């Protein structure tokens, strides 16, 4: 027992007072800590682009899939019969206007000193009719919009007819009834 | 001085005096008429006043147009034609026109026509039509069926009752205390009205309107770019208001029971100061809308615009 104890004591006495690493690692750690950040960023940024590309690819795939199988932005069901009717009415109206304008050329009511507000009104109605027509093409079941559109046509014809009744000045001085 | 030259000098004053005599030509005529009088008046320039009296005859007093080619007062059965005949071509201003006061029986069918002549018409009953180009029309206290049309002349009316149509291109319309069924049509003119009419129709293009309504049965409004402000105390049946780019403001009592269906269109705006209901956007479209109901709704209010603004307030 005593021999064992003494052996242990001698072994302990022979141990070094502190443990030192085989190689000095601090230098490496220090270098690592002071390593330029850009190297890290470059790698992270590279990863970010990769993630973004994957995300985009996924989104595009999802979007195409949705469009094909279950549209995300469903197109309104356009009633082709109503669209055709819309186009037909527009054509008929244009024919009617052309006929009225042929008469207008004979009457030459635009030379009347009172024609200006009538002409302005007709121009404004035509411009408004265009806007309503475009809205109707997108939403051909809007009854109220239909009525407004038909009204602009009706009013345009009404104003053309009123214009034709205006007193026309055949010379710069007199009025003719 | 040569005799011909002397003659010319003497002739010129004579022509001037003759013209002055024509300008001052006065008229004072009476004509007994039948019960179902239909009167056509054609006075192109000047001022014409038409009013009723309790006699079965027509009276015409005043002066004729400076360029008058004669006065016509012709009776064919119940049809009477009254005309200050003018040359086919003429110029000059309205001050040189006729100045006539015409008294007629209260019940009649009247068809009055003018160019720059202004008409003042009052206290009549029947089918009354006045059509002037640039002249103003002032009509009051008329009942039954009234149609007034001008191009640039202003229309001013009060106490019209029955079926009324007021129509102008660039003139203004000022109507007060009308009742019955009324239609206002304007292009660029301004509308100001205070009416008790039950059925109201307003059509304007670029002119603005301000209309005070009372107990309305049916209201129809169409405007292109003109703004309109309407106020009403009650609505029985329906109100349809449409605009392209014009603004619509509708003032209603808070307790009005109605179904509201407001379409703000792709470029319009909706402001609701009447209730707490908020306008909504359609899911995949720029169109805004507002639907709500107040009370046990009997009436329908539909308002739509493409790019104007719609405002509801009390």
From TrEMBL, chain A:
Keyword list, A-Z: Membrane, Transmembrane, Transmembrane helix
Organism, as annotated: Shewanella atlantica
Protein name (Swiss-Prot/TrEMBL): Uncharacterized protein
TM segment ranges: 48-65
From TrEMBL, chain B:
The keyword Transmembrane appears for this protein: no
Signal peptide positions (record): 1-23
Keywords: Signal
InterPro entries in UniProt: Toastrack_DUF4097
Residues in DUF4097 domain copies: 38-312
Region (Disordered): 267-286
Classification via Pfam families: DUF4097
Protein name as annotated: DUF4097 domain-containing protein
Organism the protein comes from: Shewanella atlantica
Lineage: Bacteria, Pseudomonadati, Pseudomonadota, Gammaproteobacteria, Alteromonadales
């Amino acid at each position: 027992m005593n021999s064992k104890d003494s052996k242990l004591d001698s072994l302990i006495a022979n141990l070094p007072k502190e443990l030192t690493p085989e190689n000095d690692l601090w230098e490496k750690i220090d270098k690592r800590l002071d390593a330029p950040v850009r190297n890290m960023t470059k790698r992270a940024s590279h990863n970010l682009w990769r993630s973004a590309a994957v995300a985009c690819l996924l989104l595009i795939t999802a979007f195409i899939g949705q469009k094909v199988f279950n549209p995300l932005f469903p197109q309104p069901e356009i009633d082709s019969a109503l669209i055709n009717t819309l186009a037909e009415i527009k054509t008929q109206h244009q024919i009617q206007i052309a006929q009225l304008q042929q008469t207008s050329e004979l009457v030459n009511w635009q030379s009347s000193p009172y024609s200006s507000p009538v002409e302005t009104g007709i121009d404004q109605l035509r411009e408004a009719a265009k806007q309503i027509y475009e809205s109707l093409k997108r939403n051909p079941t809007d009854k109220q919009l239909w009525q407004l559109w038909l009204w602009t046509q009706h009013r345009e014809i009404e104003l053309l007819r009123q214009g034709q009744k205006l007193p026309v000045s055949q010379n710069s001085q007199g009025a003719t009834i | 001085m040569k005799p011909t030259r002397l003659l010319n000098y003497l002739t010129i004053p004579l022509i001037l005096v003759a013209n002055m005599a024509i300008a001052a030509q006065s008229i004072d005529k009476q004509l007994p008429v039948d019960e179902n009088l239909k009167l056509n008046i054609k006075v192109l320039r000047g001022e014409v006043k038409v009013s009723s009296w309790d006699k079965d005859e027509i009276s015409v007093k005043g002066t004729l147009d400076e360029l008058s080619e004669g006065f016509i007062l012709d009776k064919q059965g119940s049809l009477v034609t009254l005309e200050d005949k003018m040359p086919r071509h003429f110029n000059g201003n309205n001050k040189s026109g006729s100045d006539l006061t015409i008294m007629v029986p209260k019940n009649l069918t009247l068809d009055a026509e003018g160019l720059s002549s202004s008409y003042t018409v009052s206290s009549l009953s029947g089918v009354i039509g006045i059509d002037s180009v640039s002249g103003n029309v002032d009509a009051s206290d008329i009942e039954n069926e009234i149609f007034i049309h001008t191009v640039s002349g202003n229309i001013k009316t009060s106490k019209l009752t029955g079926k009324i149509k007021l129509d102008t291109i660039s003139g203004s319309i000022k109507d007060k205390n009308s009742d019955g069924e009324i239609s206002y049509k304007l292009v660029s003119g301004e509308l100001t009205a205070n009416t008790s009419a039950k059925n109201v129709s307003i059509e304007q293009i670029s002119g603005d309107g301000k209309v005070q309504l009372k107990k309305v049965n049916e209201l129809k409004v169409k405007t292109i770019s003109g703004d309109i402000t309407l106020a009403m105390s009650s609505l029985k049946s329906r109100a349809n208001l449409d605009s392209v780019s014009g603004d619509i403001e509708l003032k209603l009592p808070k307790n009005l029971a109605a179904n509201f269906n407001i379409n703000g269109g792709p470029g319009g705006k909706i402001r609701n100061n009447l209730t707490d209901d908020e306008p909504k956007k359609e899911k995949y479209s720029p169109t805004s809308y507002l639907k709500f109901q107040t009370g046990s709704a009997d009436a329908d209010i539909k308002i739509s615009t493409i790019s104007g603004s719609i405002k509801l307030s009390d």
